[in-house]
Structure formats: structure tokens, C-alpha cells
């Protein structure tokens, strides 16, 4: 059974503004996502009052504010799981590196994501690269979807 397109399923649904911190931009533009979808995949978002904003600007994971790229990667996993399409195109998804994937999974854990979304975040293992420094040369190793390859 094919999943419904995002525009058909949530075209007229309420939007949730996600406010982020950005050290380089004192007033970064918030992300706008489908409120129902975000609340469906995050227990923290489900507990928000019926407002149109989720303020993540004060959220710190592993001593660092959550980056826009990390939240977009999390939203992409949610949209991919629900609709087989991205929330926003990301050329350099943080989930393509070991450190970035750790950041996405740490954020997913911090907002109490559902198990299916955690698995969707891990779907990026197919394109995960491990960079090894061999003397003066840096070599990119492809894991081909196996977390134990490194």
C-alpha cells in the first residue's frame, strides 16, 4: 500500500513553528512543520500546550545547543517515515557522519522520539561515512548500512 502524499494528508493542518538557537544569527528563522506529525513522533512535543511554537532554543544536548541541521535531519526522518519524502532537502545531512548521526539520535532521545522514528533516523546508516586519517591522507570509508563495519 502506497503512503499518502504529504500535501494530501496535511495540507490544511496546523503548523508548528520550531524556534532554534543559532550562535551566528541572533534571530534565526524558525522551522515550520506539520504540528500533528511532530507531535506524533515526539512525546515532548505531545505535551506542549495547544500553541503554534515549540521553543528548542534553550535545548542543550551533550553541552551544545541543538543545530538547525540536526532538527531538519530529525524532521526528514519523520517525513520519510510517514510520507516517503523529505521535510527539507539536505545536501550535507549530519546523519551521514558518525558524529552527526550521534547528534541526531541524541536529539531524538532528548525529545522522546518514538521507536519507529529512532529506526527511521538510523536508516541513514546506508550513506554513513567514517573518515580515517592515514598519515597525511584522509580516507572516507563506506559502511554500506552496517553499523559494525567500523
Descriptive account of the structure:
With 150 residues, the protein is α+β, with helices and mostly antiparallel strands. It has six helices and seven strands; from the N terminus they run αββααβββαααββ. It has helices at 6-10, 35-41, 43-46, 68-83, 98-110, 115-122; strands at residues 15-19, 31-34, 53-55, 60-61, 64-65, 129-134, 137-142. The strands form three sheets. Strands 2-1-3 form a three-stranded mixed β-sheet. The chain has a two-stranded antiparallel ribbon with strand order 4-5. A hairpin with a 2-residue loop joins strand 4 and strand 5 (64-65). Helix 4 (68-83) packs across helix 5 and helix 5 (98-110) runs antiparallel to helix 6. The longest helix has 16 residues, at 68-83. It is globular.
Tell me the layout of helices and strands:
Elements: H1 6-10, E1 15-19, E2 31-34, H2 35-41, H3 43-46, E3 53-55, E4 60-61, E5 64-65, H4 68-83, H5 98-110, H6 115-122, E6 129-134, E7 137-142
Helix pairs in contact: 4-5, 4-6, 5-6
Amino acid at each position: 500500500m502506497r503512503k499518502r502524499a504529504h500535501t494530501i494528508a496535511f495540507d490544511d493542518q496546523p503548523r508548528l513553528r520550531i524556534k532554534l538557537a543559532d550562535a551566528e544569527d541572533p534571530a534565526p528563522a524558525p522551522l515550520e512543520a506539520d504540528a500533528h506529525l511532530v507531535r506524533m513522533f515526539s512525546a515532548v512535543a505531545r505535551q506542549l500546550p495547544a500553541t503554534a511554537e515549540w521553543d528548542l532554543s534553550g535545548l542543550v544536548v551533550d553541552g551544545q545547543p541543538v543545530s538547525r541541521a540536526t532538527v531538519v535531519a530529525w524532521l526528514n526522518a519523520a517525513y520519510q517515515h510517514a510520507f516517503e519524502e523529505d521535510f527539507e532537502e539536505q545536501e550535507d545531512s549530519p546523519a551521514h557522519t558518525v558524529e552527526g548521526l550521534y547528534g541526531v539520535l541524541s536529539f531524538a532521545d532528548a525529545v522522546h522520539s518514538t521507536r519507529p522514528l529512532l529506526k527511521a533516523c538510523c536508516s541513514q546508516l546506508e550513506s554513513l561515512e567514517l573518515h580515517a586519517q592515514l598519515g597525511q591522507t584522509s580516507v572516507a570509508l563506506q559502511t554500506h548500512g552496517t553499523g559494525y563495519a567500523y
